[in-house]
Amino acid sequence: xxxxxxxxxxxxxxxxxxxxxxxxxxxxxxxxxxxxxxxxxxxxxxxxxxxxxxxxx
Length: 57
Hints:
The chain is mainly α. The protein has a domain at 4-31. It has two helices and no strands. It has helices at 4-27, 36-40. Keywords: Membrane, Transmembrane, Transmembrane helix. It holds the Pfam family FixS.
């Protein structure tokens, strides 16, 4: 029973911290574009850059 006096306030602080982090991430636009990064990896960059090494035969 005495452990509940410690565990309940600690769990409330943890939930409050999680809510603050979620609120911060929503306000800073972390969830604005959920599909863009998934499609970005599929876009193939076929251009050759001058600084990249190329294989010559």
